[in-house]
Amino acid sequence: MKVLVYFQSKNKYSSFEGTRLRKSIKGALEMSGVEHTNNIVDNYDLIHLLSPFDENKINDANENHIPVVVSALQCECDPDASFLEYKSSDGKREINLTNKALRFLNKASIVLVSDKRAKEFLINEGITSEIQICTPGINLARFDFSKEDEKMIFYRYFGEETNKNLVMAIGDYQTADGLNAFVGAAKKNPKVLFYYFGPCSIKKAKNQIKKIAKSAPKNVKFVGNVPDDVYRSALLNAKIFMFPSYRPCGIVSLFEAMAAKCQIIARAQSVTFSDIIKDGENAYIGKFSETLTSLVKDYLDGKLVPTIENAYKEVCKYPLVQVGETLKKYYQELINLKNYREEQQDD
Question: Global pTM?
Fold first, then answer.
C-alpha cells in the first residue's frame, strides 16, 4: 500500500494549518508502517487530500479508479484548506459549505472529520459520501518543555523581553471576525505580549484588518509566515491561546495549544466542531467579545483556576500511532473494495 498525501498551500506557509496537518498525517503513517509520498507523479494506490481547491486531483483519481480520502473541516484557519463560507444577515452569522467544497466532498470515497458535530453538519449540508470520525493526532514529542533553547527562539526571533508573558491567537487575515476581542484583551493587559499569527503578511490583509492593527496598542503584534520552530516556541511560551474568531478553529491549532499546555480561552462559535472542549473543565469559553476580554484579564490576574492539565490529558488520548492505525484501516478497506470491484468486472 502506498498513499499520496497531498496538500500545497499557495504561499508555501511553513507553519500554517494545512501544512501542519499534512505533516501530522505523514508522521502517523510512518508509525504504522504505511508507505507514503507527496510527489504527484509517483505511483500510488490511494490519495489523501486536505483542500477543496484540489478538485482536479480528485477528478484525476476518480477517472483512474483510485480511492480518495479527504480530511475536512480540520484546518479552517487556513484559507487554502477551508471548506466553509460565512454570511451575515440581520446580525446573525451563517456557516455553510462552499459550493466548491460540496461538489468536492461528494466525489470522495470517504470523508474524515474530527467529531460527531462535524459529521452531522456535513450530512445536513448534503454530503452523500461516506463520513467517518478520525481525529487528527498529536506528536507530543514536538512539545518538550525541558528544552530551554527552543523556548528562547520566540524571544530572539522577535526581539522581545523574556520576562514578559505571552498571549497568542491564530486566524485568517481576510476576515476581521473576533479581532476586537483580542485587541480588547491587550488593552486591559498592557504589560503582556499579544501575538496574532496569520497565513500572510499583515500588509496583504484586508483594509478592515489594517485599521484594527493601526489602532491596536503597542503590545499587539500581527505577524504572518514564520518558521515552524518559531511558532512552536511561541506555543511553549504562551500563557493563553485565544480562539477569538466567530469561525470554527482548526483542530490542528487547538491540539497543538493543548499539547503545549497553553490555557485555552475560546469564543463559543470557534469550537463549534470541537466535542472535546468543555467550558470550565479544559478551557474557558465565552460567547461575546467582552466576556473573552474579561476571561483573559481574570486568568492573567490569577482569578481563574488553570485548566491546562485537563486539556493536556485530553489531547494525550490521540497519539499519532493510534491515528495511523485508524487511517491504515480505512485505506485498506477502500483498496480491498476497489480490488473486489475490478475482480467482478473481470468476471
Answer: 0.92
